[in-house]
Write a structure and sequence with these properties.
Rossmann fold; 8-stranded mixed sheet; 3-stranded antiparallel sheet; 29% helix; protease; transmembrane; membrane; serine protease; hydrolase
């Protein structure tokens, strides 16, 4: 298995002391807490979907390095999974933060004062630990195959696979078919291009395949940067079905805090979160229909559909949840019928508007007359008692209004007061 992402240091508030991890050799340090909302959240705009769905009732399995459910934004989100490294129930040990970061992009809960949050913050995470480190080489295709089957058998409706293999095996193929037959959507990272490989010309060739993303029935995910351009590390291949932000993106680290991560692993987490939103909003859709919805509603990139490394384009959470898909495409609503005009109705409408204007004019006139009469009575009473105010001096700035005359809007909208005799 190959490493699909890296973490860099992120400046934030507070510092994180060394924290020991059970069953970890040289555990990674937690990141600093970052309060600001990351820009990729604004790019995806997934909060627009939350009035409709936040992913409640959908379980997303994360096949990775484990998920640390003690992180403040993952408490209550992570269930008991399975640890294939230690052959024991749990999956909650994460020595390098990779799986925790992916899970947080899917379902991190909101916390006051923290801008970062997962795409589907009411979804549940099922942790499935298959390696201790993404660069350890401990994982095998057979382990991935068993992990997929285990996740399917334990209630996952979406399975996020951010670890890949270059080996195409019968076991892994059979596990993918098993998930397809049980209506479970597989979302897999497209992998990482070798660092010594020049960018291929899309017309001349593509990168070698990575599995399980390259299998039919698996949604393969590529990564783009903040400007929407494909990451240099994201493969150029036909099995890259859809793209999402993947470099850098903010995500959780083990224990607490956040880090900046890059790679197709983290783009995959974002797409899995969108899949959870769709499955929660449209529970009757099959996994294949959810995949088709995501592809049909993706935002097109420069170059149009089929562009190498993007294929269908950038995932769009709002469109994926709100738009309907028919026969593999976005449903086009019919045009409004032509408006017909009835001359009799037009004449009746003109008469009605004329009557309304006349009644309004009469009403306003009556109010003005009442106001003038009331003011006249007040002035006459003051003159009779000698309580008339002296005229205000005229300034060089222009004439001033008489203090005896209240502003028009005040007198016009005032509620009449009843006085007893």
């Amino acid at each position: 298995m190959s490493a699909l992402g890296v973490m860099t240091t992120v400046a934030g508030s507070g510092s994180a002391p060394a924290v020991a991890a059970a069953d970890c050799s040289g555990p990674a340090e937690p990141g600093s807490v970052v309060a600001e909302a990351p820009p990729e959240q604004a790019t995806l705009g997934f909060k627009r979907v939350w009035p409709t769905t936040m992913g409640r009732g959908v379980t997303v399995a994360v096949i990775d390095t484990g998920v640390d459910g003690s992180h403040p934004q993952l408490r209550g989100a992570v269930g008991q999974g399975w640890d294939f490294v230690d052959s024991a129930p749990s999956g909650g040990t994460d020595c390098v933060s990779h799986g925790t970061a992916v899970a947080s992009l899917i379902a991190a809960r909101p916390v006051p004062g923290i801008g970062f949050v997962g795409v589907a913050p009411e979804a549940s995470i099922l942790p499935v630990r298959v390696v201790e480190r993404t660069d350890s080489g401990l994982g095998e295709p057979a382990v991935l195959a068993r992990a997929i089957r285990w996740a399917v058998d334990h209630g996952a409706r979406v399975v996020n696979i951010s670890l890949v293999t270059a080996e195409d095996t019968a076991d892994l193929r059979a596990a993918v078919r098993y998930a397809n037959e049980h209506d479970v959507l597989l979302v897999a990272a497209a992998g990482t291009r070798p660092s010594n490989t020049e960018l291929p010309d899309p017309a001349d060739g593509t990168d070698p395949p990575y599995y399980p993303a390259a299998y039919p029935g698996v949604l393969g995910v590529g990564a783009v940067d903040g400007a929407g351009a494909r990451l240099a590390s994201s493969p150029v291949a036909s099995y890259v079905d859809i793209a999402a932000p993947g470099g850098p993106v903010l995500a959780a680290t083990r224990v607490r805090g956040h880090g900046a991560w890059s790679g197709t692993s983290f783009a995959t987490g974002l797409v899995s979160g969108v899949a959870a939103l769709v499955r929660a909003a449209e529970p009757k859709l099959t996994a294949a229909e959810v995949e088709r919805r995501l592809l049909a509603t993706a935002n097109r990139v420069a170059g149009g559909p089929g562009t190498a490394g993007y294929t269908h384009g950038m995932v769009d959470p709002y469109r994926a949840v709100t738009e309907k898909v028919v026969a593999g495409g976005v449903q086009v609503l019919p045009e409004m019928p032509p408006r017909t005009t009835d001359p009799a109705l037009v004449r009746a409408e003109v008469r009605h508007r004329s009557m309304v204007r006349t009644a309004t004019t009469i009403g306003i006139g009556a109010v003005i007359v009442v106001v003038i009469l009331a003011l006249t009575v007040v002035v006459n009473r003051r003159r009779a008692t000698g309580a008339v105010r002296p005229a205000a001096a005229t300034s060089s700035a222009g004439p001033t209004q008489s203090p005896d005359l209240p502003p028009l809007e005040e007198s016009y909208f005032a509620v009449p007061k009843l006085t007893g005799r």
